[in-house]
Specification:
Elements (H helix, E strand, L loop, with lengths): L8 H13 L5 E7 L11 H5 L4 E6 L6 H8 L5 E2 L8 H9 L7 E7 L5 H9 L17 E4 L3 E5 L10 H9 L11 H14 L3 H5 L11 H12 L10 H13 L18
Parallel strand pairs: 1-2, 1-4, 2-3, 4-6
Antiparallel strand pairs: 5-6
Helix pairs in contact: 6-7, 7-9, 7-10, 9-10
Bound molecules: guanosine-5'-triphosphate (GTP) and magnesium ion.
The site of guanosine-5'-triphosphate has 26 residues, from helix 5.
Length: 270
């Protein structure tokens, strides 16, 4: 079994707590990243779905390709939100139609790290109740919050330590897994450059930085980016580690444009 170097104790504990909590909840909301709705699905969703209904929600819609999001919404996924701007009206309506087992409806928000679980929870309860942050691993344990007519449980992002290394590579481009899980920023950046070039998306992304069409190897492309961005060591050579970090972090935060990595039935690593 391949294990990532990043499956900290809080993930193992969160996983145990969630399955124990399931008996006290009416519904799970599984948050995913709209840029890769299949690869960012929760490793626990199938097991939780045997216990309680699970509704999948795509967050970060504003960072995804709008045409591709439309395709995803034609399938089983019904909700996509820019959690920084959109209200959650239709989702709340669906929740409140359910008959709660207790006095109030109890909902658990689950998903992998950094997909927007805490932000979705804050939007549901209407306030900055749960801590939100741009790096994976912000929420460390389960916590209950009160909304208008329901209780919501926030939970820590959980990765599957047994996922194929390729899955973690793609997650590192979206900020859902730390770069060190896949061997550092250079490995993450070279994987990203290779993927985007294979899919004909590289210029759409790196064009913002003035990148041009080339048949050079990926390492030389990263070098070119480093030079353009002024990521230089004291001797004037390109600091490729720094360039790699700038590329991965800029892509993850959406500063390089709206890109969706996969369509239904398609694998990032085909
Ligand atoms: N652009 C954009 N950013 C979002 C959206 N939803 C969340 N974010 C950002 O994504 C980052 C992660 O959000 P969180 O709500 O902390 O994510 P989480 O899933 O709770 O993360 P962990 O607790 O670390 O597992 C933050 O920087 C948010 O501002 C969205 O719809 N659009
Ligand atoms: Mg959180």
């Amino acid at each position: 079994m391949s294990r990532t170097v990043w499956f900290p104790g809080h993930m193992a504990k969160g996983r145990r707590e969630l399955s124990e909590l399931a008996a006290r909840l009416d519904l799970f909301i599984e948050t995913r990243d709209a840029r890769a709705p299949a690869s960012t699905s929760s490793p626990d969703a199938a097991a939780l779905a045997k216990l309680k209904p699970v509704v999948a929600v795509l967050a970060k819609k504003d960072l995804a390709d709008p045409e591709k999001t439309k395709i995803w919404l034609k399938g089983r996924t019904r909700y996509a939100f820019d959690l920084r701007r959109d209200g959650l009206g239709p989702l709340k309506k669906e929740m409140l139609r359910l008959k709660p087992a207790h006095r109030e409806l109890r909902v658990g928000v689950v998903g992998i790290p950094n997909v927007g679980k805490s932000m979705l929870l804050n939007s549901l309860v209407g306030g900055a109740a749960a801590k939100v942050g741009g790096v994976p691993g912000v929420t460390r344990g389960v916590g209950w919050y009160r909304g208008n007519g329901f209780l919501v449980v926030d939970s820590p992002g959980i990765l599957d330590p047994r996922s194929a290394p390729g899955v973690h590579l793609a997650l590192s481009w979206l900020g859902c897994a730390r770069a060190e899980v896949v061997g550092g920023y250079e490995a993450a950046a070279l994987g990203l450059i290779s993927f985007l070039r294979r899919r004909g998306l590289w210029l759409a992304v790196a064009g913002v930085w003035g990148a041009a069409e080339t048949d050079e190897p990926d390492e030389a492309v990263l070098d070119g980016i480093g030079r353009r961005l002024g990521c230089l060591s004291s001797g004037g050579a390109v600091n490729s580690g720094l360039a790699a970090r700038r590329l991965v972090e800029s892509f993850a935060s959406g500063r390089l444009g709206r890109v969706t990595l996969e369509l239904p039935g398609e694998s990032i690593f085909d």
